[in-house]
């Protein structure tokens, strides 16, 4: 187990807002709610039913007397409900990696931050299929008495959003002030405005489009392939102590390539070497015993370039905190999401369902959800006369910009929410 004190000392070096900081939400605790049972099962878009369904979530700030200051944050592909502050339950839940840093959007959520917890009640929940407390492949199947694994039914972005609606019912919240998310979380915010138009006053969609491009589908296909061809995947029936670690690590490496732009990779790594080769003749190869050099050599397993070291680090760290089957299920939902389904394939017809105000932000160097694709949704809304603001922020960070361009993005979000508060 990690030492919380040492983890916090390390955090001080990184300028995080520590628990005692007036800008931090402090120590946080997970919350759980059962939102579906035998008498009230959850019906998936496939028609299959699921029960019991438990949702793990976190909240920050206070719900006001009129219950109209709630903002729901939707997490991205590998995110979770721990969006801000410091997880007080990390040791108990075996999530020790959280001891080293606050929630994944801590720069954005807290007193005086764009999502001001002195003003708003912030909610974030893990999606269906998650490995972080919400029912998923790692949960126990009541009829089998063992984890679902790959017998867990296929889930969709639409299923996630409807389940979020059940959580809001549980919390006694009829209407959100805003729904906000980036990447796959942005698609959930978009879907919320379509599936429950009466329950949200504003949708804030960051680095997300109505569907994933063919290029994005291709990267996800390769990610699934490396997981499912890992011999330890075993058709999803792996043990908790011996899973498809190599496959999951490689899948995460693939994902990280899509999160960065060419410029950010050049600036961060270039062609810099991560170490000095042991034999100058090899230049990244192992020289065999006969000294024949590259002709019969094999690649060295140790990374040679800095970018290799970075990707391997991200892959190995991800294996410590995520489940391979959950990753497969969430990737599938990401691939299959298509907002135009609400209009029978016509995006403008789908947009007719939207009643809320909309803020759509893209980033110039994002090629996973490129600006043109994000603009498609803004254009559809605009043609129907819906209230929409679209901004394309100049950034060299690629898709990760929605997490990094805090100042520009934050000012836009803050202003948009203030305007929502003025609308009757």
Question: Which features does this protein show?
Answer:
alpha/beta, Rossmann fold, 33% helix, 16% strand, disordered N terminus
Please provide a written account of the structure.
- By secondary structure, the protein is an alpha/beta fold.
- It has a single domain, classed as Rossmann fold (3-Layer(aba) Sandwich).
- It is 33% helix and 16% strand.
- Strands 2-5-10-6-13-14-17-18 form an eight-stranded mixed sheet, sandwiched between helices. Strands 1-7 form a two-stranded parallel ribbon.
- The protein is globular.
Give the SSE map.
Layout: H1 4-12, E1 27-28, E2 31-36, E3 42-43, E4 49-50, E5 53-60, E6 70-74, E7 86-87, E8 109-110, E9 115-116, E10 121-125, E11 140-141, E12 146-147, H2 157-171, E13 178-182, H3 184-195, E14 202-206, H4 214-228, H5 245-259, H6 262-268, E15 285-286, E16 298-299, H7 306-319, H8 324-336, H9 347-351, E17 357-363, H10 371-383, E18 388-393, H11 401-404, H12 406-422
Parallel strand pairs: 1-7, 6-10, 6-13, 8-9, 13-14, 14-17, 17-18
Antiparallel strand pairs: 2-5, 3-4, 5-10, 11-12, 15-16
CATH overall fold name: Rossmann fold
On the 0 to 100 scale, the average pLDDT is 91
Number of helices: 12
Beta-strand residue percentage: 15-25%
Order of helices and strands: HEEEEEEEEEEEEHEHEHHHEEHHHEHEHH
Largest sheet: 8 strands, mixed
In the residues, how many domains can be counted?
1
CATH architecture label: 3-Layer(aba) Sandwich
Share of helix, binned: 25-40%
Q: What's the count of strands?
A: 18
Find the structural class using helix and strand composition: alpha/beta
CA gyration radius, whole angstroms: 22 Å
Shape summary:
globular
Output the CATH class name: Alpha Beta
Q: What is the H level of CATH, i.e. the homologous superfamily? A: Alpha/Beta hydrolase fold, catalytic domain
Low-pLDDT stretches are: 1-5, 276-296
- Give the strand order, joined by hyphens, for the main sheet: 2-5-10-6-13-14-17-18
Note the gap between the termini: 51 Å
């Amino acid at each position: 187990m990690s030492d919380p004190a040492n983890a916090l000392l390390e955090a001080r070096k990184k300028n995080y807002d520590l628990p005692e900081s007036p800008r931090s939400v402090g120590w946080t605790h997970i919350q759980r709610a059962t939102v579906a049972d035998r008498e009230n099962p959850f019906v998936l878009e496939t028609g299959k039913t699921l029960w019991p369904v438990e949702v793990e979530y976190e909240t920050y700030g206070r719900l006001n007397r009129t219950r109209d200051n709630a903002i729901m944050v939707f997490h991205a592909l590998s995110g979770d409900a721990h969006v801000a502050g410091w997880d007080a339950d990390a040791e108990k839940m075996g999530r020790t990696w959280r001891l080293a840093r606050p929630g994944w959007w801590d720069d954005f959520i807290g007193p005086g931050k764009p999502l001001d917890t002195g003003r708003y009640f912030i909610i974030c929940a893990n999606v269906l299929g998650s490995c972080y407390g919400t029912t998923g492949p790692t949960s126990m199947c009541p009829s089998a008495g063992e984890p679902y694994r790959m017998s867990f039914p296929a889930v969709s972005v639409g299923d996630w959003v409807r389940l979020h609606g059940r959580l809001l019912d549980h919390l006694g919240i009829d209407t959100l002030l805003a729904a906000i998310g980036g990447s796959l979380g942005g698609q959930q915010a978009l879907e919320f405005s379509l599936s429950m138009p009466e329950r949200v006053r504003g949708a804030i969609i960051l680095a997300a489009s109505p569907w994933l491009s063919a290029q994005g589908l291709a990267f996800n296909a390769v990610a699934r392939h490396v997981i499912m061809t890992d011999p330890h995947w075993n058709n999803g029936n792996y043990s908790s102590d011996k899973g498809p670690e190599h496959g999951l690590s490689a899948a995460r490496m693939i994902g990280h390539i899509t999160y960065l732009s060419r410029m950010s990779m050049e600036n961060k790594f270039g062609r810099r070497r991560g170490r000095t080769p042991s034999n100058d003749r090899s230049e990244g190869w192992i020289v065999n015993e006969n000294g024949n050099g590259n002709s019969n050599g094999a690649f060295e397993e140790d990374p040679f370039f800095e970018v290799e070291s970075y990707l391997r680090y991200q892959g190995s760290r991800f294996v410590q905190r995520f489940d391979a089957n959950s990753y497969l299920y969430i990737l599938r939902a990401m691939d299959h999401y298509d907002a135009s389904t609400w209009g029978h394939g016509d995006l403008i017809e789908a947009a007719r369902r939207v009643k809320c105000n909309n803020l759509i932000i893209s980033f110039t160097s994002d090629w996973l959800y490129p600006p043109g694709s994000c603009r498609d949704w803004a254009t559809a809304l605009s043609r129907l006369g819906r209230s929409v603001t679209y901004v394309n922020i100049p950034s060299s960070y690629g898709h990760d910009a929605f997490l990094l361009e805090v100042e520009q993005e934050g000012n836009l979000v803050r202003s948009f929410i203030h305007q929502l508060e003025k609308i009757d």
